[in-house]
Amino acid sequence: MWVLLLLPFLGLLWVPFYNSASPSLFGFPFFYWYQLAWVPITAILTWIVYRSAGHGDEP
Amino acid sequence: MTGAAELDWTALSVCIGFFALVTIMGFAASRWQKGTADHAHLDEWGLGGRNFGTWITWFLVGGDFYTAYTVIAVPAQVFAIGAQGFFALPYTIVVYPIVFAIMPRLWTFAQAHGHVTAADVVYGRYGSRGLELAVAATGLLATMPYIALQLVGMEVVIKALGLTGELPLIAAFAILALYTYSAGLRAPALIAFVKDIMIYIVVITAVAFIPYKLGGYSAVFDAAGKAFALKPPTPPSGLVLQASQYWPYATLALGSALAAFMYPHTLTGIFASKSANTIRKNAILLPAYTLLLGLIALLGYMAHAAGIKPATPNDTVPALFRTLFPSWFAGFAFAAIAIGALVPAAVMSIGAANLFTRNIWKAYVNPAVTHAGEAQVAKLTSLAVKGGALLFILFAPMQYALDLQLLGGLWILQTFPAVVFGLFFNWFRAPALLLGWAVGFLGGSYIAYMDGLKPLHTVVVGGASYTVYVGLLAVLANVLVAAVANLALRSTGAGAPRTA
């Protein structure tokens, strides 16, 4: 499960993948909404790792 | 500066009102969250009793990591050069998986041995005074200009209110110094609640109301795109990156993320947590601030759409607020930014004071110092550190603070191998890590200096040239040298780490 934590690095550090204006969403060019979308995605991935490691029951 | 901003009484009154509120909270904080423990102990003054739960830590680290300078400087960069300035976003996203993987371990080790600073952890792990001193001195050196930059953030706001002279800045900082002295980490922790809620209100209002006034987000991006199209091709600017900016963008994001939680102020928030799980939960919850930062960055584009012509890029946000908001809300927003400078400045001075007390005073001046004595030295150091930062801002050119803060990021990143590797492997030994640190620190500083204090350096590998963040380059050299030196050391058996 820990490998999930590597996904944000792949998704965000490979810049040519998202360096474009289209498709835009709600007026935001792709470059911006794609990176903003990684904020909740990263939080959710981290939460999955947290649950699977059994930390959910710790104080 | 914007020069003759007119004195705005409504904005000024609102701003002073909130400032008075947090001042009272700052002094009252010494009694907040206090258990039965003895107050004359560095754990109490410098770490708030190591008892901050998930929400307090969330507000404290959020208030401390996303500084006032960020609120001013990130939109300023985005205003000036566009997409490249947005690297703060991937930086503050990838930082959290790093925090999640490393910081609970660091906390556990520090808690078990009563460590207060990163240099304590290093000494505890390796028993090397040399490596401890390297980490402590680097932390002190990197923090000082960072505190000075918080003053820059405050200065921008004070001038936007129409106040002149240095007296308001000196007064604000003197008040901050006094309540930090008396309440320690509890003061910024309590004030962080107010500051963060105010910043959330300001930013959510701004990102909803301003685009509505300016014709929606498409209009905002269009206006910024047109402004960049009129600019000369160098330095590169635009709504998306040029191919030459890919490496700078990615390496600045990664290097900054690795460095971020090596700073004394961010680590203080970590050490002050109640449990390792508090930190894990915060690694999941803190990205809410990153979303906020992404929206704050877009204020730079909104300034283009609103036709703002700031005197310097740093005036972009205050000028935008003064133009588009009614006076009372501009005053509220300026108060949020000014208070936003107080929280990190307080935590930075506490982090620096803890380092000085534990790893310089106790290590070299008075090894027999009592717990109460430690707390007293730290309190006085926090005053000295803030006084130094204030003098620096009043008398040195502002460019010095900016240059030193840039170098500070490079420097603090060089402590990463010494602080982190020992938590995971038993392989590295202190002399090798110290040599790696020296190569990274000196070599990185030299390269940055030769490049005219620019964060980016161009390297040629196999005929192709890459422009990368010099800090990341230096830490690669650091690790490489440490690994080679370690191989040599292990054959002699010297400098083995203590068992954890």
Keywords:
heterodimer; A: 59 residues; mainly alpha; 51% helix; B: 500 residues; two-stranded antiparallel ribbon; globular
What does this entry look like structurally?
The complex is a heterodimer of chains A (59) and B (500). Chain A has 59 residues and is mostly helical. Chain A has one domain (2-57). Helix content of chain A is 51%, strand content 0%. In chain A, helix 1 runs antiparallel to helix 2 (30-52). The longest helix of chain A is centred in the last third of the chain and has 23 residues, at 30-52. The two termini of chain A are 22 Å apart. Chain B has 500 residues and is mostly helical. Chain B has one domain: Sodium/glucose cotransporter, CATH 1.20.1730. Chain B contains 22 helices and two strands. In chain B, strand 1 and strand 2 form a beta hairpin. In chain B, helix 1 (9-28) packs parallel to helix 17 (327-365), helix 6 (118-126) crosses helix 20 and helix 21 packs antiparallel against helix 22. Chain B is globular and about 70 Å long. Classes of the chains: A mainly alpha (59), B mainly alpha (500). At the A-B interface, helix 1 and helix 2 of A face helix 5, helix 10, helix 11, helix 13 and helix 14 of B.
Elements of chain B, N to C (H/E): HHHHHHHHHHHHHHHHHHHHHEEH
Instruction: Note poorly predicted spans of chain A.
Output: none
Shape of chain A: elongated
Instruction: Specify the CATH architecture of chain B.
Output: Up-down Bundle
Mean pLDDT of chain A: 92
Q: Evaluate the radius of gyration of chain B.
A: 22 Å
Helix/strand order of chain A, N-terminal first: HH
- How would a crystallographer describe the biggest sheet of chain A? none
Helix content of chain A: 40-55%
Count of DSSP H/I helices of chain B: 22
Q: How many separate structural domains of chain B?
A: 1
Would you tell me which CATH topology of chain B applies?
Answer: Sodium/glucose cotransporter
